[in-house]
Amino acid sequence: MSDTQMPPAHPFDDDKLKEECGIFGVVGVTDAANFVALGLHALQHRGQEAGGIVSHHPEHGFNSARRFGYVRDNFTSHRLMETLPGELAIGHVRYSTAGSKGQTQIRDVQPFFGEFSMGGAAIAHNGNITNAIALRKELIERGSIFQSSSDSECIIHLMARSLQRNIPERMEDALRRVEGAFSVVAMTRTKLIGVRDPLGVRPLVLGKIGDGWALSSETCALDIIGAEYVREIEPGEMVVITADKGVDSIRPFRPQKSRFCIFEHVYFSRPDSIIGDRSVYETRRQIGVELARETPVEADLVCPVPDSGTPAAIGYAHESGIPYGMGIIRNQYMGRTFIEPTEQIRNMGVRLKLNVNRALIKGKRVILVDDSVVRGTTSRKIKEMILDAGAAEVHFRIASPPTAWPCFYGVDTPQREKLLAATMSEDEMREHLGVDSLRFISLDGLYRAVGEASGRDPKSPQYCDACFSGEYPVEPSDMVEKGFQMKAAE
Amino acid sequence: MSDTQMPPAHPFDDDKLKEECGIFGVVGVTDAANFVALGLHALQHRGQEAGGIVSHHPEHGFNSARRFGYVRDNFTSHRLMETLPGELAIGHVRYSTAGSKGQTQIRDVQPFFGEFSMGGAAIAHNGNITNAIALRKELIERGSIFQSSSDSECIIHLMARSLQRNIPERMEDALRRVEGAFSVVAMTRTKLIGVRDPLGVRPLVLGKIGDGWALSSETCALDIIGAEYVREIEPGEMVVITADKGVDSIRPFRPQKSRFCIFEHVYFSRPDSIIGDRSVYETRRQIGVELARETPVEADLVCPVPDSGTPAAIGYAHESGIPYGMGIIRNQYMGRTFIEPTEQIRNMGVRLKLNVNRALIKGKRVILVDDSVVRGTTSRKIKEMILDAGAAEVHFRIASPPTAWPCFYGVDTPQREKLLAATMSEDEMREHLGVDSLRFISLDGLYRAVGEASGRDPKSPQYCDACFSGEYPVEPSDMVEKGFQMKAAE
Amino acid sequence: MSDTQMPPAHPFDDDKLKEECGIFGVVGVTDAANFVALGLHALQHRGQEAGGIVSHHPEHGFNSARRFGYVRDNFTSHRLMETLPGELAIGHVRYSTAGSKGQTQIRDVQPFFGEFSMGGAAIAHNGNITNAIALRKELIERGSIFQSSSDSECIIHLMARSLQRNIPERMEDALRRVEGAFSVVAMTRTKLIGVRDPLGVRPLVLGKIGDGWALSSETCALDIIGAEYVREIEPGEMVVITADKGVDSIRPFRPQKSRFCIFEHVYFSRPDSIIGDRSVYETRRQIGVELARETPVEADLVCPVPDSGTPAAIGYAHESGIPYGMGIIRNQYMGRTFIEPTEQIRNMGVRLKLNVNRALIKGKRVILVDDSVVRGTTSRKIKEMILDAGAAEVHFRIASPPTAWPCFYGVDTPQREKLLAATMSEDEMREHLGVDSLRFISLDGLYRAVGEASGRDPKSPQYCDACFSGEYPVEPSDMVEKGFQMKAAE
Amino acid sequence: MSDTQMPPAHPFDDDKLKEECGIFGVVGVTDAANFVALGLHALQHRGQEAGGIVSHHPEHGFNSARRFGYVRDNFTSHRLMETLPGELAIGHVRYSTAGSKGQTQIRDVQPFFGEFSMGGAAIAHNGNITNAIALRKELIERGSIFQSSSDSECIIHLMARSLQRNIPERMEDALRRVEGAFSVVAMTRTKLIGVRDPLGVRPLVLGKIGDGWALSSETCALDIIGAEYVREIEPGEMVVITADKGVDSIRPFRPQKSRFCIFEHVYFSRPDSIIGDRSVYETRRQIGVELARETPVEADLVCPVPDSGTPAAIGYAHESGIPYGMGIIRNQYMGRTFIEPTEQIRNMGVRLKLNVNRALIKGKRVILVDDSVVRGTTSRKIKEMILDAGAAEVHFRIASPPTAWPCFYGVDTPQREKLLAATMSEDEMREHLGVDSLRFISLDGLYRAVGEASGRDPKSPQYCDACFSGEYPVEPSDMVEKGFQMKAAE
Fold first, then answer.
1. Contact indicator for C28, C211 with CB cutoff of 8 Å
2. Which residues bind Mg(2+) (chains A, B, C, D) (predicted)?
3. What's residue B101's pLDDT?
4. For labelling alongside B220, which of A51, B328, C475, D396 has CA 20 to 30 A away?
5. Residues with Cβ < 8 Å from C244, sequence gap 6 or more?
């Protein structure tokens, strides 16, 4: 059942993979919801469609607010934040649900809340449950009523049916039934809970703020609230945190070798975040260095496709010795959606957002550095703009290997047929885009850039790189059920 | 858990009992949701806070829209109604939930929807489930997750847990667990369902429109869509209606003697509705006639307190021979709520809504006819306005007996202590209001006016009159649990 | 130049003449703007499209707020009213401008403000300047820049060009150039000013509130603020009021015999207002009495067309001895406009607003009393509803003579061709409406009802009755210029 | 008089000089208003508070729309743009008025429109009229009524009072009375008009699009509509453009040596615009080169203060050989204003917008390159963030000379006392900011970077650089009247 609320998402941002969620939680600080709002603002790049916060206060109980739109437009108002009192709160920003075909509904906006016999709990997650459809079917047959189309609601229902006596144990019970790639923040009346799936595909970090604690998808959100970064929650770890007793670590899952999402390094995470003690910015810059080594070309200018290509372009320029310059300028005033746009606006596409710095480009052999090629639609338009401006040559250099497979772990990817690299060779893509050269970093090069000096271990890859390799560390069983063709074993 | 959305209700309308809901459904007509919107507009007096519609279309499945505010401000727009296709739809308008302390949340707005293994169903109800708290507790213990604070959600969960194979039978199962006073409209993918509780406390009528059928709280909503009034759904009856096979009647409950809400005649229903083959307007006029017989007084003018006192005033004037006149004029442009009103607005009270027709009132002995006295706050202010305008005498005549007991069957009543008649005798009330005389119609007089020639049968009253008599036909078990003191048996 | 802001007005209210404005001003009370807001709320029936308030405070200067929509939805908010400090304020509600073809723009919303070399002044008016087009043309030729399409802006420009030293004298200068029917409230930094045109066509009354003074279109707005009614501003009088020195009366115009608008008695004014020491309600009731005497008919029920026909119906019933009853019930929840309504809503027309009390009407010979017939479109629909409900006969009785001429004095009337009475005889109208009889009160009967015992003086009529008689007391020169055909002199 | 509409501007953007307006016009293309909307979107950096468009269509006349907020949120909607038909349109984006103390009112949003006896004209301007107060006083004394607090309205009134027969000649008349620095786009029913003041302080360029023409503040807005850049309108030139006859050039002013605003090169213009055949980006990069030459320092990292410091930082890094890196990351989701923000939000300041890339900064000697220092408030906060992140040293390098004087030519500058450089020496500033070194580019260095090989000509400077030098090319007479102290002649 759908409930109409939101205009369709912006048509010009659709040529990127999209991280679907950011999560944040805090315990042991006054006005916890305010900190959550700030944290979510710092995580806004992980989901711009909607956000929600749940807080708990001993007197006022659980309170929540869910809103479409940016955190800064909703969760900054004195009047709203007053309704979210307490020293314990969690929140969520989202892009859209894997499950929903069309529009998001406010009831799909997390955190979800459930009232159990021993009290209430709220839960928010980042990632995807790959057996959600099967679980949902089973739960409905046993009499559960789902309020949303979000697969994370399964966790709440599994918890409701657990025979355990307290909520953390019920959550353990529930998580053992769940497959996929997910990080979770949850809360009871007194506890902040964090979980990462056994492979640790999606990120989750722990921070310390005064006498309290914070959980966040990325470290950049710890910075904004002035929290100190403590460590990553480990793959397969569940932490139960109270203001007075601190962090209790539990291992609900069978141990496995970790497979962190390598695309967090490439694109999803903010460059000022730290993953595994490495600056994301520095990793991206290093990708540019590797790319320059692997795919040199004679040119006059290294130019980033703003803003995500910038660090790799800086690295490429530095390594190649070719001058770095801003050949494409981004309009700062682009937002996300238009309501009933004029025909002309609809046809403008990327030109509403980007303009070529004609005087700089003119007559030059230009290396354009972008983070990835998904459908290739934006790349074509950018190439046209660059050529219109009088560039002598256009060379695309891509800071990730060809994206040939969809992600089923909480990232919004087009269907496989729409991925340029799924149907074309590198050379066909070059021709399709109409550029003088097109080169991607190798998978090994990417692994080197993220710190694996000897590259990818083909027997047991250190990261989840399914979008490049087609090797899915967790079987996407719901999708296979729906007919998705896995890569044939070699 | 509360989700802040709405300003508190208007402070000047609070001196009335409030019907909490209106329900409407239609099957077998193109664009069924449009008909539901019109029906709900005609039922708006039964609930002004919010409304919702669910429709079903074979291709597009179930769709819903829920909005705060008037039907006419939401469900008239082409753009919204397009999202609700199909030939089957139900809808609901609501005032507020018995259960909620403060503000309504959009997720409390009916109809509710549940996905069962054999398909979805939507349900809306008018009335109250008196064992809802106990049921809810039991269901939560068994693992149900509630999405709202509304007690009607119990029905959906009971249905989800039923072992029956089809939805109507699951609903029968569910309704047998439920106590209270309620009318229900529900729908599956193909069926429109209507139910009245065994005592038939709340109304529900059946209408025919072209080849289709309609269910409505009142006949006035059949008129607006051009439907023909067929009959009342009987107390304890469940009708299952399909476009092709028509109306199937089922009796899920043990038969009982009916106890229709007598206050529907006095105030809740619209005067142009028909209840039990009697015009509500005519009944109210007849109440005025009885009132004039029972409580005559010498005076110069019979004046209604607008608008609900008007028909009884017309009857009183006719029977007494005293001229009828509009001594109080209502401002047509009053709405319901103010957001952050100025101090002055807050203090204006009833003067924002009513003004005295000074030239008519001056020097006259005035009989004011009102439908009821609840807290008495408005009555006092009206008396002051009338005296300020120079009336020689003020006589209140009330078209219902003293309201001394709260209603637990879907009507918003103040706590017992706030009811003027619960703590004062008629004479104390007269003094409290500061009027020359105050008289209420007798309970027998009221029964005569609604057509019971020999008055109320004290052994087995023909109506539910608990608000006057304290005799509750269904034990309000949740409230008793919370400490409500029933009237001692005599 | 048009500036799009508002949806077109509601299509179902268009079968009435519309008063275009209400004006209110107050001096010498704290938070004067709050009093103006309340006064405008009481005058909302005179204009529902938009409202504006200007206040002055010695420290904060002039401040204004203009808003589309009802007074109660805008000028009740603490936050807005705080921006309008001071002890002197004026305000205005409006329906629409005579001049504008389509939509109103916020800059057309009065009061208008002008900065002169000796200080600022704000002005609001009710009525129409009949030589506005000519004045405007002249002023533009001399270099004035108009900010609105409203003809009252002429007054500000004439004042700006006056050679007088103070604002009241500049206003006198300006008003002497202006022809038409108008009442004005204006303010300088210290003075509240009121003016009525020489014929006194439009109303304006004076009230006393504490140490301050109020000016209002009607007395009902004095009641709401608790002000005492002092007297009418006289035709051709200008009052200049200061908090300390009180009311100074000036006569800027050549004296003429007054010609107050008789339609204020019939329809425009609120029934609880007093005009010339007569209650409007009582006058309307008396119109019903005269109507019963002039146009008797055998019938079973006298039924008002709500709400404007009610007092006359009460009078008719009383005089004729036929029972009075509410055969038509109004939906309280109708507003004014729909944005992009569905086809079905568009076709509903009057049924969205009115329903027949079928049980009362059935089988009866019904006398329907309405205030006027303009286009006749609503009358036809009401007749159909009444017959559908099974009435045996339908007799229309109209509380005003046939409306055969447009008003050019601040009232929104259709073009002459659209007025039913302009093109049909009474008998043709009866046939067109399809009723058993149709009768209007005579012009003499109407004059008797408003207190002129010997009826209308044909040599020198006591009222402006141009809409009935075609005798215009002020030549509508702009309209004649545009081709309007005056009635031939007899 | 003020009319409340808008929350106060965002408190964290206030440490920049603000260009106050962008203007755009187009003639000879279908749906001209759509092109204007796109152009204004590209000029949004010149004014984010509000925007307006006026179009003319032979049948539908002049139409306008004015809205608060971004162009993209208003002027992209099909429904709004349909109301602006025609092949001729002009538009304006604005930041705020020099004159207004507090909030902007919708009536202050340009373009302004005036109806003259020979037809209407609309006008929008960028810049400031330095004798506006005196002109306004004179015009009011002669009977003009001002509708706004904007000084550009003077031009319309002067035109209205001109004795010339056609609008372009009236505009010439008006402009000769006006002093200051301004560029104007205007339109009659058939003509698009552009004017630059005699010194050419503010920019205006001409473009060709198909058979039509465009005028724009900057070339970047020609790019977005696909127009070809033709040339700059020359200082003191007035162009009158019709679709069929093309561009007619007029010289209404006495010729003077041009004094273009040098700050357009430093900060106001978009880097992808071209001024005087030079890319703004390239100029800024060159400023960085000059700065590196003038103010070398040993360090490990050159880091821009995003985004305006980026090109100069690239130049500085290139020239100095010190690696370039993004040490500060901007949150893409910052907007401009908060309504009733929480205390915490209010205190966050720049941290809501910027975060330090800790891993990159840690232990490094960092050169921060920013475009200017105004109040110094943001610079201090950035320095703190950098030191908190563990930088070893912080060296500020500023791509403009010390800003010691306010601009009176259409730029929003703090009062002189608030400018850090007005009250402190460079060394005092360094101490105040608490950095290891602080150096500004020299005025000569800046002149060299913009292409004046031999630097600034002190006898007759090539640019307006009053904000640095205190030498005002046009006397700011209104401000002098108000007490502003000009720099003593040396």
1. yes
2. 308, 370-371
3. 40
4. B328
5. none
